[in-house]
Amino acid sequence: EADIYQTPRYLVIGTGKKITLECSQTMGHDKMYWYQQDPGMELHLIHYSYGVNSTEKGDLSSESTVSRIRTEHFPLTLESARPSHTSQYLCASSRDSNYGYTFGSGTRLTVV
Amino acid sequence: AQTVTQSQPEMSVQEAETVTLSCTYDTSESDYYLFWYKQPPSRQMILVIRQEAYKQQNATENRFSVNFQKAAKSFSLKISDSQLGDAAMYFCAYNRYNNDMRFGAGTRLTVKP
């Protein structure tokens, strides 16, 4: 059973809307990550956090923003959604990345 | 920068047969960790197996085993007695000590009944 939860699983939204993708974990992990993945394709790191009030941009430039006010919560926000944002967004966490990441089930976003 | 290469975009295997997925990586480090992740269609990505670079012994988890060749920077995954439930995208990943993980582009495995 997953200890990291992403909501919603699927989202279809109109261009220009503001959206927040939720990610929460109950494992007390300090490190959390957001990846963007087109279906069946490679993962691209867009944001990460090593703890409360710590956020960094990843390798792939993204118009999204993140916040980390609580250890367990790492939401991702798009201020104005565009069709180019259509993708799957995966959240992950780790206590010690040497032992791997725990992934959420993902949010599949479609912007029309 | 460390890179991970999976040269097989797609592989297929007959049920009950054995298949090997390839992965190579580039690093100048001596201490690192390697992983294989499985992502079934529309389902959560899960960790399949993990290898510590300082251990010469190849990791094994039930039907899954790796062939770790440190000098060649190769880390292949062998799936024995393939089952229909093994059908998924498989991602190879590299992690230098407590740094962020680098993923390969993935290999889509199809299992034929």
Structure explained in plain terms:
- The complex is a heterodimer of chains A (112) and B (113).
- With 112 residues, chain A is mainly beta.
- Chain A has no helices and eleven strands.
- In chain A, strands 2, 4, 5, 6, 9, 10 and 11 form a seven-stranded mixed β-sheet that branches. A four-stranded antiparallel β-sheet of chain A has the order 1-3-8-7, with no helix packed on it.
- In chain A, strand 9 and strand 10 form a beta hairpin.
- Chain A is globular.
- The model of chain A has no long low-confidence stretch (mean pLDDT 93).
- Chain B is mainly beta and 113 residues long.
- In chain B, 0% of the residues lie in helices and 53% in strands.
- The mean pLDDT of chain B is 93.
- Classes of the chains: A mainly beta (112), B mainly beta (113).
- Chain A binds chain B through residues 2, 33, 40-43, 45, 48, 58, 90, 96-101, 103-106, and chain B through 33, 35, 37, 43-47, 50, 89, 91, 93, 95, 97-101, 103-106, 108.
Keywords:
heterodimer; A: 112 residues; mainly beta; seven-stranded mixed beta sheet; four-stranded antiparallel beta sheet; 11 strands; B: 113 residues; six-stranded mixed beta sheet; 12 strands; globular
Give a short synopsis of this structure.
The complex is a heterodimer of chains A (112) and B (113). By secondary structure, chain A is an all-beta fold. Helices cover 0% and strands 48% of the residues of chain A.
Query: How big a fraction of the residues of chain B is strand?
Result: over 45%
Shape of chain B: globular
Helical content of chain A (DSSP H or I, runs of 4+): under 10%
The helix count of chain B comes to 0
**Mean pLDDT value of chain A:** 93
* Subunit arrangement of the protein: heterodimer
Low-pLDDT runs of chain B:
none
Helix and strand run of chain A: EEEEEEEEEEE
- By DSSP (H or I, 4+ residues per run), the number of helices of chain A equals 0
* Number of DSSP strand runs of chain A: 11
Over the alpha carbons, how many angstroms does the gyration radius of chain B reach? 13 Å
Silhouette of chain A: globular
Encode the helix/strand succession of chain B as letters: EEEEEEEEEEEE
Query: What structural category do the secondary elements of chain A indicate?
Result: mainly beta
Sheet/helix structural class of chain B = mainly beta
